Amino acid sequence: MYLGDDRREVLGNKNTIVQALNIYRGVEVASHTRNHAPLLKCDRVRVLEEIVYDYLRLEDIFGQKIVGMAYPGRIPNYDEALAQFIAQYTSVCFARTTLCTHRFDFPVDFMQWHPTMHILDVQAEDIVEKFSDCQEDALLFLWGHAFELDYDETRWSRVEKLFARIAQIENAVCLPCGEVYRRYHARTTGSQTDG
Ligand SMILES: [Zn+2]
Fold first, then answer.
1. φ/ψ (deg, to 5) at 10
2. How many Cα atoms are found within 13 Å in the side-chain-facing hemisphere of 186?
3. Cα 145 to averaged position of ligand 1 atoms, centre (Å)
4. From ligand 1's centre to the CA of 36, what distance in Å?
5. Most exposed residue of 98, 126, 132, 171, measured as fewest CB within 10 angstroms of its CB?
6. Interval between CA 105 and ligand 1 midpoint (Å)
7. Which is nearest to 48 in space by CA: 78, 89, 92?
């Protein structure tokens, strides 16, 4: 259960596993830890439990290899040492932070992958227009939680409009994070990876 800005209660688990399997068919799934744990406050054993138990369960449920995660909780929710630890001891290949850049560059370190913006960013529409003007390879990386859209009636329609605008941008393709990761590495290493 979450409380929205207007203190409305919103369910974070309103879908059953069977419903989730239908809703997210064909969608890339990533870990967000087992308990939305503040990883910087956890010892290393707990970090592994939170991440590995979570992605093993997700792999069982969704029948896909999980190679990505998003650091849970409020900033600061990760640091360099934690990112390196996760990369070394789990099968996570990329991890999204919540540090929005408002830029369109590809990540320097995929284990500290900063998004462009939150889907409800107050500047979202302007940022999308800037992205549509880009002449070179550019990455518009969006993040958000589905439950945040239930806080009030305006949010779903605002995000639907934003996505409709993004879908109109010529020469832009919509990719899940894992595909961006694979294409980036295939290009920089000159070889194809099957991930
Ligand atoms: Zn979260």
1. -125, 135
2. 10
3. 7
4. 6
5. 171
6. 23
7. 89
pLDDT in tens, 153-186: 899 999 999 999 999 999 999 999 999 999 999 9
Q: What is the pTM of this model?
A: 0.90
What is the 170 CA–ligand 1 centroid distance (Å)? 32
Query: Ligand 1 center to residue 61 CA distance, Å?
Result: 20
The CA distance from 175 to 103, in Å, is: 17
* Cα angle, residue 58 at apex, residues 56 and 61 outer, rounded to 5°: 115
Architecture of the domain delimited by 2-189: Alpha-Beta Barrel (3.20)
Tokens in use for 117?
């913006």
CA of 72 to the centre of ligand 1 (A): 5
Q: How far is the CA of 118 from the centre of ligand 1 (A)?
A: 12
15 vs 81 pLDDT, higher one: 81
According to the model, what pLDDT value does residue 7 have?
A: 53
Q: At 115, list the tokens.
A: 């998004």
Assigned token pair, 79? 């640091």
- Kindly state the percentage of the chain with pLDDT values over 90: 85
**CA 169 to ligand 1 center in whole angstroms:** 29
| Residue 126, token pair as written in the block | 């302007």
- Rounded distance from Cα 73 to ligand 1 centre (Å): 6
**Distance from residue 40's CA to the centre of ligand 1 (Å):** 15
